[in-house]
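Worked example (supplementary).
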Amino acid sequence: MSPEDRIEAAYRMAAETYSRLGVDTNRALERLAGIAISLNCWQGDDVRGFEAGEDALAGSGLECTGDYPGRARNAIELRSDLRKALSLVPGGHRVNLHAMYAETAGGREERNRLRPEHFSGWMDWAAEHGLALDFNPTFFAHPMSVSGFTLSSIDPEIRGYWIEHGRACRKIAAEMGRRQGRPCVNNLWIPDGFKDTPVDRAGARRRLRDSLDRIYDQDIDHSLLLDSLESKLFGIGSESCVVGSHEFYLGYAMARGKMICLDTGHFHPTERVSDKISSVLEFADGLLLHLSRPVRWDSDHVPVLDDELTACAREVVRCDRSGDRVSLAMDFFDATINRVAAWVIGSRSVLRAFLLALLEPTEQLVKLEKEADYTGRLALAEELKNMPFGAVWDHYCLRSGVPTGMGWMEEVRRYEREVLRNRT
Ligand code: RNT
Ligand code: ZN
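After joint prediction of all chains, the assembly is encoded as:
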C-alpha cells in the first residue's frame, strides 16, 4: 500500500467511527477549510522591524530570547519565510503586520507620518498570493516610548505623537481592507504601565480614553477595517499597573462599538481565556484572539495542542456558529528554534485544535448536560479522546496538498540548509 492509500484507508475507517457518534467528518473539514489564522510576521525577525536599531525591544516590556540562525533581515527575506511557512499549512491564511515593518526605501519615516504607500510592497505581495493582511500600530521600540508611556503619557507632545500614529495606522489598515476586499483587523496594544504602585491610576486611564477617542474619531466602514484593543495584566516594567487593563478595554470597546483582543498570555495564570469567549460574544459583535502559550507567565511560546488551546477552539466553534465573529491571530516570538518551523508548528496546532472542536458531537454533550447527566457528559468527553482524529487530519493535509506527518519538517530543514544558513 502506498503512503497515500494508507492515509485514505485510515480516513475511511475514521469517518465511519465518527459517523457512529453522529459526526460528519467531511462537513467538519469543509468548516476547517474556512478558518483563517493570521500569522504574526514578527516571529520571523524577533520583533525587530525594519527601522534599524539593534535594541529593537528596548522599553517595550517584551522579551525575545535566543540566537537561532536565519532571522529575516528585510522584507524580501521575511516574505520568503512567510511563504515557506504558509506552503506547509493546509488552508488559506492571513499575515499580521506591525507598523514597524514599513518599507521606507532605506530612509526612515516617522511613525506619525506613515502612509499606505509604505506598505504597498506588502499589499502587492498579499494580492499576488491571495492573502489577506492584518495590522498593528507599533507603540514600542521608539525614542518616543522609552519613558514606558505613550497614549497615556503625562507629556502632551508624546501623547500627540502617538495619537497621530494611531490615526495613520487606521488609514493604512483601511487601505489594506479595500485592496483585499475583506476587512483588515487593526489591533492596538500599548506598553503603558507603572513599575511601582501609582497614585493617580484614574488620571492615566482618563488620558488613555481621551487619546483613543481621538484615534477613532473617524468612522471607517467595517467592511474595510475592524478596530480591536488588547489588554494585559502586567509586563516587564509595568508590574504594578497596566493602564490598558482588561476592564478598561472591555468597557471602552462596549461603549464605542470596538472589538477587544484576548491574548491567551495576558491574564493571571489560573484564569482561562477559553472561559471568557462566551461572555464577550454575548455583548460584542466581534472578538480577536491572540493565540500564544504562556509558560508560567506571559512568555510568548509557540502554541501547541494543549488543553487550553483545544478549549479555546471548542468555545469558538460552539459560540460562533456563523464562524465570522472571532478573528484568529497568533502571537509569539521564540528565537531559540527555527522561525519558519515555529509558524508551522503554531498554525498546525491551532488547526488541529479546531479540527478536534469541529469533530465534537456537541449536540449529544449538550443533551446530557441539559438532562443533568454529568456522569454521561464526563464519560463521553473522556471517550472522545480516543477518537481517530489524526487520520482525519492526515487526510486533510493530503487533500490540501501539504505534507503529512513530519514531512513538513523535511521541507523546513531543506529551506534552512539552502536559505536560512546563508544569512550571516
Ligand atoms: C504584547 C502584546 C502584543 C505584541 C505584538 C508584537 O504583550 O501581546 O500583541 O506581542 O503586538
Ligand atoms: Zn498579543
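Two points are worth noting when inspecting this output. The chain has a mean pLDDT of 97. Residues 42, 47, 62, 136, 189, 230, 232, 263, 290, 331 surround L-rhamnitol (ligand 1) (CB under 6 Å).
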